[in-house]
Amino acid sequence: MTFVDAVKSGFQNALKFSGRSRRPDYWWFFLFVFAGAFVVGLVELLIFGQGRVLLTRIFQIVVFLPFLAVAWRRLQDTGKPGWWVLVPSAIVIVSALIAGSMSRQLMGRMVHMGETPMMTGAQPGLIVILLLAQILAGIVIIWWMSRPSQKGANAYGPEPRVRGK
């Protein structure tokens, strides 16, 4: 599969979460998303200057579902459930909610009680644990994405057509 074929396939199958996608499908689309975000961000910076992220956000919205779908199918191609691709994102969301809650608590102490903001108790440990969980989950997902396709049919469908067949 070529780069252009992978990008076309990614957008054509943007809502397809069943079936399987081979490594080239995923990694070429990954390259498109990564390079596209870089180029759009650079163009936006050159045209509008710092602080404007409208074009970058639009690009992210446009590629979100296709990228999620191809990643989902890629995990299924290795025999893993596709929803595992959501685990790193879930950890980031939980971390952000906890960090936001902790920030509000610290600011509340500072404003209402005149205390110096300081993390106490298990808060620093929780932040370290969540950070390590994010890193570990990311490494595991990258490892799974780089694994070869499961030979033959699996629970998610037949093996995708390979070159020469």
Structure description:
By secondary structure, the chain is mainly α. It folds into two domains: 1-77; 83-150. It contains five helices and no strands. The protein has helices spanning 3-12, 23-48, 54-77, 87-113, 123-146. α2 packs antiparallel against α3 (54-77) and α4 (87-113) runs antiparallel to α5. It starts with a helix and ends in a 19-residue tail after the last helix.
Task: Give a short summary of the structure.
The chain has 5 helices and no strands. The protein has 165 residues and is mostly helical.
Give the SSE map.
Layout: H1 3-12, H2 23-48, H3 54-77, H4 87-113, H5 123-146
Note the main attributes of this structure:
mainly alpha; 0% strand; 67% helix; 165 residues; 5 helices; single chain
Q: Note the overall shape.
A: flat
Percentage of helical residues?
55-70%
Radius of gyration: 21 Å
Compute the separation of the termini in Å: 13 Å
Largest sheet: none
Report the structural category.
Answer: mainly alpha
- Mean pLDDT over the full residue set: 84
Number of strands: 0
The domain count comes to 2
SS strand fraction: under 5%
In terms of quaternary structure, what is this?
single chain
Q: Uncertain segments of ≥5 residues (pLDDT<50)?
A: none
- State the order of secondary-structure elements, H for helix, E for strand: HHHHH
Number of helices: 5
